[in-house]
What does this fold into?
Amino acid sequence: MTNLLPKDFWSRNETLVAGVIILFCILATLSDPRFFSITTVSDLLRASIVIGILAVGAMLVLVSGGIDVSFTAVAVVAMYSSTVLALAIWPNIPWPMIFVISVIIGAGLGAINGFFIAFLGLPTLIVTLGTLSIFRGFLLTFIGSQRISNLPPSMRDFSRGVLARGTTEAGNFYSIPWAVLALVFVIVLTWFILRKTMLGRSIYAIGGSVESARRIGINVKWTQFFVYVYVGALAGLAGIIHGAVGRMADPFSLVGLELSVIAAVVLGGARLIGGYGTLTGTMLGVALIVIVQNSLIVVGIPTTWQSVTIGILILLGTGIPAYRAKRTAAQAG
Amino acid sequence: MSSDHDTAFIDLRAITKRYAGVTALDSVDFTVQPGEAVCLAGENGSGKSTLIKIISGVEPATEGTIRIAGQDHPTLNPRISAAAGVMVIFQDFSLFPNLSVAENIAFATQLSTHQRFFRSRSARKIAGDALDRIGVQIDLDARVESLPVAQKQLVAICRALASKAQLIIMDEPTTALTDKEVRRLQGIIRMLKEEGVAVIFVSHKLAEVLDVSEKVVVLRNGKKVAEGPASDFDTQSLTYHMTGRDVPEMPPSDVTAGAQTLMQVQGLTKAGSFADIDFELKTGEVLGITGLLGCGRTSVAKALFGLVSPDAGSITVDGKQVPLGDPQAASLARIGYVPEDRLTEGLFLSQSILRNVAVGRLDAHSSAGFLNMQGLTEEASEWLRRLKVKAPDVEAPVKSLSGGNQQRVALARWLSRTPRVLVLNGPSVGVDVGSKADIHGIIRDLASQGIGIIVISDDLPELLATCHRILVMRDGRIIDALDGKSVTEDDLAQRLAS
It folds into this structure.
């Protein structure tokens, strides 16, 4: 049995996070049997789509040894401008076109980050803190600060599309929207890039040691540039899905979410020093954060305790493995 | 001589390199034959790093011609040089700690084929083949960060082999290795040479690689000052050529008869690192503590200065008990500690040289909370002068100094506090030969002034040159106490390894 598990199974963040999730679900089911139902699963899944896509991007940046805090601004700018653009020139535009425009705008904004970071060599946190502010300010000043609830009709169609829907025996309604497929697509694509292409391996290599990467001939600049463009594109996708599913283009939404997303990624085992991070871990981190945000009330913890709980989880979730690593290092030395 | 040039893998002629008016290399000829191992020796600043940079294409030569494998290279860059089979293994190995052994070995090879997709199976095959070639077994899936230093070096060698290396340049290959690991490395080098792979060792710790080398080239101040078969050189003559002066290593003079006991350590124990450490140190005595990496010698050194908190035992200085696990109490008892890793533990790298010395004396030069800057500065300068720290400017940051001079700054700081006991952990790690002899001279001087000195080191010649008595540790215990004068290097090496 133990042979089936990776050697470091018990010391991995993924295991810890999965354990906490299972524990939480058991507690929640004990205090309210209705928690254990397809309704809960579909609710949580729906809440995970946008944060999940953003987290995949944030994870990629952490793996490459950087940190991006601007992706929520990129997402909201891409979502709002593509909606405004569509309404202005082609209100009956099919939804895939709006999605493509939003992704392109996101990628373009990501390229601005990438330019400063990869080609001018500026620190990633400084650059993205700056662009976070600039992108959002630009949006509110030049493009608009009004909420738009009258979206192009095709976007409404997208939000109505479901993979499955129904009513449980207890009479609770559930539905799984199309948008889940976007998350699945992003995970599969990113998995392929990270695991199966030299580009993906180069991202891990750069995160491990930039100097070594340069010495063996990895094109560090273009790889970094790609990372920020890709993250921008994912943010564009997450943004437009957020708008479509929420049936409103709100220029004040999303921004402020970035730290929760990064928290989810860090909980999943990505390290701020770069080089470490997995999709499995990231998704588990997202699941945990979403569960805490949505279902804490079920086990009798008031919602005001949400952020305290998330904070404790981060401290324990990253602290325990770090402390353990330090102890083994001390014993070896 | 001309046939030498014809068959050579690397053939450099009359290479000169100038940086902004400074001549780093002055018309140096340098050849390496296929399957030949060459020792490139020289002190810091002798030009050996510059020569390596020119061969590997990192820096262009100002004048001279470069031929690699019979082909002229008027312009050389790292890619061309690597494609011709020149691989450099830097002192830090340039590995990726977060990736597996297999990927570390195969990465460069897979990049060079311009493939877009990563094939994990072919990476494992490339890595497995390279490891087989040198007859080593390392778990292909292990992360490199989890490997000991010696295995990381083997991974770096395998990576060079996988990239079809014809010449492997190794920068300071033995500094981090134990004797046993050095012997294994020597075996691997012999095997590579049989396969026609040439090796250049760049080192200032040479005795260990002399055995497997055919040729020695010594640089000093940018000029080639000696070249010849390795059998013509020994540690003494190498040192002479590198420094341009004879640096005789005199054994320490006797401890004055009737010297008093200065420090007494009894039953010092810390679970998991060392146990039952007993010894005495007399005034003016130099005591060596040695053992393989991981034997607990560094933990003992730290415990003496309170940086590691022992579970049991006692330390007394001049008959007075020193509280354990408290560096401030230790320094009040006038114990000084110069750590092995000056860079991270000992010095404030970006602060000025003067401040680094003066920081230990802030209390002595302050009154009513104000500092007497002048007195502080004068005293620090005096110590820098006495230890012959070569610095253009005492206000320059410490990191601008060479290893030997940094070590002197660390020493100066402690000496200015007039310690009774000085614990030196690896006093000459990363220091070139000339400075090393000077540091040994300083140790002897200090001892003759009555300071008790404890030298923690695995550099056997260093111990023999400085110590009156040598304690050998294994698995956290002292297993031998030897007289520094009567023991030989071979004897000591055997006791260490056995």
Q: What stands out?
A: The interface with chain B takes residues 195-201, 204-205, 207-209, 211-213, 215-218, 274-276, 331-333 of chain A (CB under 8 Å). The longest strand of chain A covers residues 162-167.
